Write the structure tokens for this entry.
Amino acid sequence: MPAKKKILVVEDETSIRSFIVINLSRAGYEVCEADSGEAALRKLDEERGIGVMLLDIMLPGIDGFEVCRRVRAGGSKIGIIMLTARTQEVDRVTGLMTGADDYVTKPFSPTELIARIDALYRRLDGVISEDTSKMVSGPFELNTRNRTLDKNGVRIRLTQVEYTIMRYFLENPDRAISREDMLSAVWGNDYIGELKIVDVNMRRLRLKIEDDPANPSYIQTVWGFGYKWNS
Ligand code: CA
């Protein structure tokens, strides 16, 4: 028997979330849920085999657009259907490059929602079954589908930012990367903040991945410039 298709439902309004969860479960899907953007990103890290995410836009904390942006920045190819409440939101989903695959406007019927999910699964078929999801460097294996990092087969728990930094390093091994480039690759071009955040995260990442964080052998500092991944 094939594995059940697994959906992540991200919606802060309990009544709407329950309604979706009940209907998808009845239709034979495996369903997990999150009530905020932050919780959604955690679920994507922890849970295996999520194929499609239903993503409400108006969420407490980071909104659906930002969740979508971060998921795509990390290279994930999961299907994303935005749940929109207003026409302005539809305009943003369709008008901007948010990385979403489709959108459904509230209120929607279970039948309509399931039809959209099935259609998306058909389009994704092959895309998410390709095994192009592993990047290996020395003792490290980064799985871009599950957004996980293993060192010598042992899982290292990373934040979304740390994961994205690791991915950028592995995509650019043995290349000096300026702090500015790292900032825009990880936080986005529109990030307004200090370069210092790059150093703060680099320090934390070293504590997690280096054998001896005081004498790092993987993440090398390029003085006055940035960092380099030693492959
Ligand atoms: Ca909401």
Observations:
- The pocket of calcium ion is lined by residues 12-13, 56, 58-59 (CB under 6 Å).
